[in-house]
Amino acid sequence: NLLSTKWLVDKSFNSGLLDARLRIASAIASQWFGGIVVPADTTDCWVVEGLAKYLTGAYVQALTGLNELSFRRMRDMRTAALLDDGTTLPPLASRAARIWRGGQYAGPDIAAGGSTHALPSNVEHGLQCKASTVIYMLEKRLGPDVMQKVLKYFAGLHVRRNKKDQSSRAGPSAEVLASNARWIHTLQMFDHCRATVNLGKGEVNSFLERWVYGAGTPKLAVGYVVKRRKNVMEFAVKLEGSNAAAAADRAALAVARNHRTSVTVRMREEGRIDANDHVVSLGTTAWQLMEIPLQPRPKDRRPKTIIESGGDPELIAAMDCPVHYVRVDPEFEWMGNIEQPVKQIGLESMMAQMLEREKDVVAQTVAVEFLGRRVENGSMSAVLVLDKCLNSENTFCRVRAEAAIALGKSASAKTQWGGLNALVRHYRANQCDADTGKPKQNDFRDLAKTIVDEAVITALGLVVDSETKRSHPDALEILIERLTYNDNEGNPQSDDGFVTTIIDALARSLPPNAATLSTIVELLYLYVQRDERFPSDDMCVTCAAIRALGLLSSSIESKELRSIAAKGAELGFVLEKQSAFLAAADTKMYLEYAKSKNVIDSLDFMLECAKDRPTATQSALLWSAYDYLQTFRGSPSLQTVTPKVLKELRDFVLYGGAEVASAAFSIISFLASNDLSLDEVREAIAIAIKRAGDQVAVGVAVHQSAPRTAEEEAKRAEKEAKRARKRERELAKRSAREAEDLHAAEQRRRDAEAAYVNAMAEHVEDTQTYSEHTGTMITPGDDAPDTPATIGMKRERESVKSFVETDSAVKAEVPAAVEAPAGEEPPKKVKKLTFKLKKPTA
Question: Where are the alpha helices (DSSP H) in 656-702?
Answer without folding.
Answer: 658-674, 679-692
